[in-house]
Amino acid sequence: MDARLTMEAAITGMAPARQDRPAARREQRLPFTIRVAGTEEQLQRAVDVRYRAYGRHVPVFAEKLRAPEAMDRASGCVVLLAESRLDGEPLGTMRIQTNRDRPLPLESLGLPDWLQNRRLAQASRLGVETGRMGTVVKTALFKAYYLFCRQASIEWAVIAGRPPLDRMYEALCFQDVFPGELIPLPFAGNLPHRIMAVEVDTLAEQWQAAGHRLHEFFFATRHDDIDLSLSRPEATALPSAVPSLPRPMEGAERRAA
Question: Which stretch of DSSP H or E encloses residue 136?
Fold first, then answer.
């Protein structure tokens, strides 16, 4: 069966995922690859997708995203790039940052106790090209995010979603960090966002219990087209742990800083 049709069925709920035998993993080829942008050329291709995606929704802020940001090259960060296997065209991108070397941008908000002194990974700068394939690419990028978190021993995946994109994260079982609040983020054009998080180690169980339609795609299917290895030695390595995290400021102290 065509991989694209299979994934589209899973995403739309037309073919519920089987969850009775998760150990019976199968292999599936994707019509695109996802890898770490390990060269300047690959990074620029990711940035181009990012710029176009943001330009469709927040054109004023998008003008600041024409070139790579300093964070794209920072230690503890990787930029993912999805490219078509047919013609090599860039299809999507996501940046992932851990708090291994420095606090995450979201930590400046003063996160609640259950996220303090935890190994965190923040996904940001998500962008995909338009068209039917975009939904599939976006789903696969989130699987890559999950796989990154597992490999890096991340405890909580955190993300900021502006309406209506926040509903997509809610559908993936992300929960509100600050219930009922929309917080303007300086690093996201001061647009109001929901701050959300999901526990990495329990995500599979959450989805299985809920009968989530993407459970099989994420947890019972092997996708070799998602490759998180690095193509250049100086690029950011996947952290195996976040050692010796500094004592975080209390919430009130942080908000006042």
Answer: helix 132-151
Task: Report if residue 234 sits inside a domain.
Answer: no
Q: What is the CATH number of the domain that holds 145?
A: 3.40.630.30
Cβ-based neighbours of 101, under 8 Å, separated by 6 or more: 74, 75, 76
Nearest to 242 by CA among 157, 138, 153: 153
Rounded Cα distance between 257 and 36, Å, is 34
pTM of structure: 0.81
* Residue at 138 is within a domain: yes
CA nearest neighbour of 195 among 122, 118, 96? 122
Q: How many domains does the chain have?
A: 1
Using one digit for the tens of pLDDT, what is the confidence trace for 94-126? 999 999 999 999 999 999 999 999 999 999 999
DSSP characters over 149-171: HHHTT-SEEEEEE-TTTHHHHHH
Closest to 203 measured CA to CA, from 239, 129, 149: 149
CA distance 47 to 13: 31
Q: Is cis: bond before 163, omega within 30 of 0?
A: no
